[in-house]
């Protein structure tokens, strides 16, 4: 019995050590990200990948979403949700958003000059909505690059929108006046009420990946997606499904009335040069080629 007890104690204490070790690593990594991020932003070491958004009916690319990428020599690749959280906590998110906006708008303007209609979506943070100069900054970037406002979509998560609903509403109205599109990202995971939704000045709803990747498994997620499609229809909002990973889900979403989709099945986020190649092939994705009809 004594032996069993000491084995149990040893196990427990090694579990605590392991936990402490992991916590230590997480904290150290977070601290390192915090130390290295300002320089990475300043030096433009954060670059963008672009993930195609596809019309589920024509199977053509209609736009791309800009997604931030950072590989540090010491830390290796750092995921955007990791460094965005640190940027938000450390007051760097404004600089990060400015860098992403500048890069994405410049790129979209290059595509427009090449004769393409490709639009670009940029993710903005809850903190950006609180910035005084956000609307002015966006107008200035568009004008400087000569990009039509309707080629830019700003993605704001439902959670961000709902953190200060009145403020978000006012900023979104001002952004719509500018002519940019507005997508509610990760829709279905936030807490918007139907009355808030009724007056929501958005142009798009992006159905969160969590409902999409289990869509084939059961009726629950299908009911949720159908409800979102119905809500969107009543307000003339475009619906985009995120996280489509297989043909069956792609087909089911189209049958359910979802117009657009994004996901690894069609294309992963890619460098701008790879998007250039798609432009020369008539905006059809290799994964979908030959599967039409
Ligand atoms: P998000 O805006 O919802 O972006 C979609 C995320 O889903 C991307 O992850 C994308 O790579 C991933 N994804 C797309 N299709 C699939 C799929 O079929 N399966 C799976 N498993 N994942 C898929 P990523 O690039 O890691 O970005 C994560 C989040 O980080 C983004 O979620 C966004 O909230 C944030 N983020 C990324 N770039 C920026 C940025 O420039 N600014 C801000 N504020 N946030 C950003
Ligand atoms: Mg997004
Ligand atoms: Mg999303
Ligand atoms: Mg997301």
UniProtKB/TrEMBL annotation:
Relative to the complete UniProt sequence, the shown stretch is 536 to 828 of 828
What is the protein name stated in its UniProt record? Diguanylate cyclase/phosphodiesterase (GGDEF & EAL domains) with PAS/PAC sensor(S)
Q: Where is the EAL domain?
A: 30-283
**Coiled-coil annotation: which residues?**
none
What organism does this protein naturally occur in? Euzebya pacifica
